[in-house]
Amino acid sequence: PQTLNPKSLIIILNPETQKAWFASVPGLRNELDLLGRKYRSDDPFIEVVTLAPRSDAVRSSGIQIKVVPRSFWEENPAFIDSWPEEHREILRLRFGDPPPRRPDFAVAFTFTYSDKPGRTVQSTTKLNGDTIRAAEIVEALTARTRVEDLADAFAWFESSSHEHAISLDSTLHYCNAPSVEELLLAVRVRTGSVGARGCVPVTTRASNNDLACLMMGCLGIEFEIRLTELRSAAHLNGREGIVRGQDSNDFERWNVRLDDGTLIRVKGANFVHIPRGVYKRISP
Question: What is the CA radius of gyration of the chain?
Fold first, then answer.
């Protein structure tokens, strides 16, 4: 990520427009929550940097994210090359709060400019429990096939408490669904459970992968996979890539972009989830 220079940085305390711009980036908040979860024990300070937009349009592809652990921001002199000394003291104070006020991570959102000082919004925050719960369910779904994990996934979809975790427009586009109601029906149809609320079918790799893909799509987070057990295209087995959404012509298939850029359509039974490092938001 771009190195920040304190001499060319303005820290602003009430930047509602800037905060709203970053909040509107699909999947960004969920990506930050999952980074905060991964590095929570390190008291992480997360830098989010992008060129200032020239309009209200959101250009998420230019955003750079860097996680700075406490061992660096508290002890390394190089931290002061990018941030004022008082910022280190603020972090110490905020991470020194006792539970439940103690934050899970700190974040700085920065707009950079070519002709004037950058502008930064800083805050500390707690993890979004709905986002973290979704990631836990996805990890369980893709590690084994248990009915209780599938039931947890249905419960997450049907709960009204997770609505703020979903980037609605992006989710419906990703899943080719016209509404949330249609999306929930699609979840049950594709897993063979269209009966009464609370009805859960026999779990399979395909049903688990389908639900896991839908959940990650709801969060705006990439779902990384490795192809397996393909027959007509056996030469692709072992190849890795990212699910890019539900196929619009075949309800049972997913669009996948392989690491070499090849685009294919594949069923949920023919891939396994392979987390590679940290979770990232879906790129444009």
Answer: 21
- Summarised one tens digit per residue, pLDDT across range 92-150 is 999 998 888 899 999 999 888 777 777 888 888 999 999 999 999 999 999 998 888 98
Q: How far apart are CA 135 and CA 30, in angstroms?
A: 10
CA 28, 33, 36: angle at the middle one, nearest 5? 125
CB atoms within 10 A of CB 134: 27
**224 with 281: CB under 8 angstroms?**
no
3-state secondary structure of 225: strand
- 15 three-state secondary structure: coil
> Residue 100, preceding bond cis, omega within 30 degrees?
yes
Nearest-angstrom CA–CA distance, 165 and 143: 23
Rounded (5°) CA angle 259-260-261: 90
Q: Half-sphere exposure (CA, 13 Å, Cβ side) for 86?
A: 3
Question: Cα 53 vs. chain centroid, distance in angstroms?
Answer: 22
Residue 266 in contact with residue 227, Cβ under 8 Å? yes
CB 136 within 8 A of CB 271: no
The encoded tokens of residue 126 equal 């707690």
Residue 211 C-alpha from the chain's centroid: 16
pLDDT of residue 13: 42
